[in-house]
């Protein structure tokens, strides 16, 4: 993507001037841990008392470095540690060389960014007057705060750059490195020394071969970023780093505060795509999926924001539920196919990912990490993302349900925090769809984090069944169609209008009773006060109808205000819309907006509340049926037992 105007370039000359100091850190440094505890000796034992250890070592080709003294006993030799991952080969392998080069590059970038941060703030001047012994006592605290901020900047940039540069070398291997402890904030060089010391410990403990070497490196970088970002959230003097953006052109690497950078690569999809006319029935779900596929394409890669997310009406999370065989998988294939086609036309990277039962792991904490990786991959601001969680009732455990495994509960916690947590940021570059045949088995709090509801009810009318039979029969027959206009019932706007109008009154018996009571009490629901009275009546009937439900309803109403499809030609010819600047796209969308009406609000209240009542009623019925079956089995067992005694 094009470089934004407020993005500063890190000059290659400035980065390369740190190569020698960075290489020296990797070759040798002496660090005494302050926070972390050593888990292994830093010194390699001799293989025999009478034989000199033959552990090979990286040898620097930089003039002058070979003649310098080696690290003292007990010092960190990270390059030697990397070389130990394959003692059978006397030559440096490509993977080992890639790690060494990535670490040197990451350290150099980190030191360059730390210098840039110091120049942007009073830190450079404070360092100078401190060296001259002229630092006044009144500014000592300020100096300490800036040094701590610089240390956090250097640490995060080091981990961020190392993770980014090694991403292309990752394999299927995974390693659990545990928490990162040695996070020092005295100053940038000491902070990096502590990071190298702990990385050396992690490599010695977990890196047994080349695949685990890369996996350990990436896992450590991720843990370090998480720890530093958490520390930075409460630290001061970081405004200039959080608001600035630097770019390393040679690596296509962009630094945006404490946000991880990843290579903007899309996934190659091999799934079977479906065209909208191949989805029979499911009118509202199909219509909203088609709209959402175009909405997400309005994302602006320079501003890192979607006008729909700013104006309101962007669907970040949605839940599709329906009986088995009603078309949930077909809907996923249709939506993924549309976004993939639009992205290919525009040249945007598209990433589709599904969270499946394969991500549930018996190892404690691993299921949660798999879910976090899924969320991070889809949220990547450098791509258009679509994440699905099919059969979510099997993946995410219901809290309080003794049948839920620890891994399922970990996934539930991650999804809840990611979809509506304190740190959730909706940029509008991606959307998440949760699908289930049994939504009543999904945790209530997680289900309520679905901002929109897609009822996937499949074909309903006589015309729908004729259309689906015609579609699935294919062309290899001579059976006449008869008195039927094929697919005329699937005219989306006509079908959607009828579907929305049907929600002028509730569908579920429990909600209909509340609606009639409130209507008899206050009359037509034509004011905010009357609508609020209706909402309170729903809450009294179902205590799970909370403030989050109201937010989801108002978001759905805003979506209805955006009840238009972006013209197909805007997707087919990117210059008409997709390649416009952010403000122009926002203006074009604003012109298509329509006012919110009372009918829209009533329909969306009924649509959302109907789904909640449907889930609750079905959940209760399922539980009652199970108990009835249990009681029946007990009676039969008791009867057989008594008969056997006579």
TrEMBL record:
Residues 322-455 form the ATPase AAA-type core domain. Signal peptide: none annotated. The keyword Transmembrane helix does not apply. Keywords: ATP-binding, Nucleotide-binding. It holds the Pfam family AAA. GO terms for molecular function: ATP binding. This is ATP-binding protein.
């Amino acid at each position: 993507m094009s470089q934004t105007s407020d993005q500063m370039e890190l000059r290659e000359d400035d980065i390369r001037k740190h190569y020698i100091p960075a290489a020296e850190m990797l070759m040798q440094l002496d660090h005494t841990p302050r926070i972390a505890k050593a888990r292994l000796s830093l010194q390699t034992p001799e293989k025999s008392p009478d034989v000199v250890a033959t552990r090979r070592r990286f040898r620097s080709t930089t003039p002058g470095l070979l003649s310098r003294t080696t690290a003292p006993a007990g010092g960190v030799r990270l390059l030697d540690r990397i070389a130990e991952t394959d003692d059978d080969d006397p030559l440096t392998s490509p993977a080992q060389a890639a790690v060494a080069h990535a670490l040197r590059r990451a350290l150099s970038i980190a030191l360059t960014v730390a210098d840039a941060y110091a120049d942007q703030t009073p830190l450079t001047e404070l360092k100078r007057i401190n060296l001259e012994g002229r630092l006044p006592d009144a500014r000592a605290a300020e100096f300490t705060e800036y040094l701590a901020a610089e240390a956090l900047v250097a640490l995060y940039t080091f981990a961020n750059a190392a993770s980014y540069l090694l991403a292309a070398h990752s394999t299927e291997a995974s390693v659990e490195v545990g928490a990162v402890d040695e996070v020092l904030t005295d100053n940038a060089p000491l902070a990096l020394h502590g990071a190298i010391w702990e990385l050396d410990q992690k490599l010695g403990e977990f890196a047994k071969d080349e695949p685990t070497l890369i996996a350990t490196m990436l896992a450590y970088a991720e843990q370090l970023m998480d720890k530093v970002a958490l520390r930075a959230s409460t630290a001061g003097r970081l405004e200039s780093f959080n608001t600035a953006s630097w770019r390393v052109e040679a690596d296509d690497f962009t630094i945006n505060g404490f946000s991880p950078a990843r290579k903007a690569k899309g996934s190659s999809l091999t799934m079977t795509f479906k065209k909208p006319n191949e989805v029979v029935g499911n009118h509202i779900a199909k219509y909203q999926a088609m709209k959402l596929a175009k909405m997400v394409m309005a994302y602006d890669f320079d501003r890192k924001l979607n006008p729909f997310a700013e104006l309101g009406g962007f669907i970040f999370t949605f839940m599709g539920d329906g009986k088995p065989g009603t078309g949930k998988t077909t809907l996923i294939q249709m939506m993924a196919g549309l976004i993939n086609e639009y992205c290919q036309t525009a040249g945007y990277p598209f990433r589709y990912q599904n969270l499946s039962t394969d991500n549930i792991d018996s190892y404690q904490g691993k299921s949660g990490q798999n879910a976090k990786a899924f969320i991070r991959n889809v949220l990547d601001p450098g791509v258009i993302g679509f994440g699905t969680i099919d059969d979510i009732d099997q993946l995410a455990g219901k809290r309080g349900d003794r049948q839920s495994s620890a891994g399922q509960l970990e996934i539930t916690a991650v999804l809840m925090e990611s979809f509506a947590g304190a740190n959730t940021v909706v940029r509008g570059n991606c959307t998440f769809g949760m699908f289930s045949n049994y939504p009543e088995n999904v945790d209530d709090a997680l289900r309520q984090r679905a901002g929109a509801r897609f009822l996937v009810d499949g074909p309903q009318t006589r015309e729908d069944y004729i259309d689906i039979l015609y579609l699935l029969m294919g062309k290899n027959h001579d059976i006449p169609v008869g008195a039927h206009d094929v697919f005329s019932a699937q005219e989306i706007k006509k079908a959607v209008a009828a579907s929305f109008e049907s929600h002028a009154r509730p569908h579920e018996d429990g909600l209909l009773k509340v609606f009639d009571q409130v209507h008899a009490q206050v009359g037509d629901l034509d004011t905010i006060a009357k609508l609020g009275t209706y909402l309170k009546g729903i809450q009294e009937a179902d205590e799970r109808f909370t403030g989050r439900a109201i937010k989801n309803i108002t978001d759905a109403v805003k979506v209805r205000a955006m009840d238009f499809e972006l013209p197909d030609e805007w997707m087919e010819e990117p210059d008409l819309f997709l390649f416009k600047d952010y403000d122009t796209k926002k203006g074009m969308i604003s012109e298509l907006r329509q006012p919110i009406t009372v009918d829209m609000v009533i329909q969306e209240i009924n649509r959302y509340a109907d789904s909640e009542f449907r889930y609750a009623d079905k959940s209760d019925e399922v539980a009652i049926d199970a108990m009835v079956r249990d009681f029946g089995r007990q009676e039969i067992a008791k009867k057989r037992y008594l008969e056997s005694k006579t």
